[in-house]
Amino acid sequence: MSAIQQPTLTVIGIRKSQGNMVADGRAVEWSNTVVTVLQPFSDKEIEEGAVGMKSTEYKIKGGQFFHDYQHQKLPAEAQLLFQLDVSKRTPVAQLIALDFKAANTVKTA
User: Fold this and answer.
1) Tens of pLDDT along 51-70?
2) Phi/psi at 104 (nearest 5 deg)?
3) For residue 16, which of 25, 31, 63, 102 is within the disulfide window of CB 3.0 to 4.6 Å?
4) What's the whole-model pTM score?
5) What does each C-alpha distance from 4 to 23, 24, 81, 84, 94 come to in angstroms?
6) How far is residue 33's CA from residue 65's CA, in Å, rounded to a whole number?
7) Where are the domains of the chain?
8) Has residue 99 got a pLDDT over 50?
9) How large is the C-alpha radius of gyration of the chain?
10) DSSP assignment, residue 9?
11) Does residue 105 register a pLDDT over 70?
């Protein structure tokens, strides 16, 4: 089991991002579902005077996943499900899905 946090955040936007480009002489194609969420500022940002919330974008690999969420009424609370990608030199937490139902069943203290 992974020790990656699965936070519940307010999702304020979901969009598809697809395209292609030429980089270093080769064609590169991408397809993502981009999720915009509201997050609290870090302790450092607050110490520097930040107030309120910040928006952050996360990508789910594959634009086709947009269709899973396109009818979701937003803004809405969702649990963000991350998986640790260890295929690169430095492991990275990769967003793999949103769970709007789990967010609605979580009780806060």
Assistant:
1) 999 999 999 999 999 999 99
2) -80, -15
3) 63
4) 0.83
5) 32, 34, 9, 7, 10
6) 6
7) 10-78
8) yes
9) 16
10) E
11) no
Mode of pairing for the β-strands spanning 92-99 and 76-85: antiparallel
Q: Is the pLDDT confidence value at 88 over 90?
A: no
d(CA 108, CA 98): 19
**The residue to which tokens 């997050």 are assigned:** 39
In terms of C-beta distances under 8 Å and separation of at least 24 residues, what long-range contacts does 39-47 make, across chains too?
Answer: 39/9
Residue 70 is which amino acid? Q
Identify whether the C-beta of residue 98 lies closer than 8 Å to the C-beta of residue 8: no
* CA 92 to mean position of chain CA atoms: 13
Tokens matching residue 43: 């302790």
In the structure encoding, which two tokens stand for residue 17, read together?
Answer: 């991002």
CB environment 35-68: b (16+ within 10 A), e (fewer): bbbeeeeeeeeeeeeeeeeeeeebebeebebbee
**Residues contacting 99, CB < 8 A, separation 6+:** 78, 79, 81
Mean pLDDT score of the chain = 90
Residue with tokens 């005077």: 49
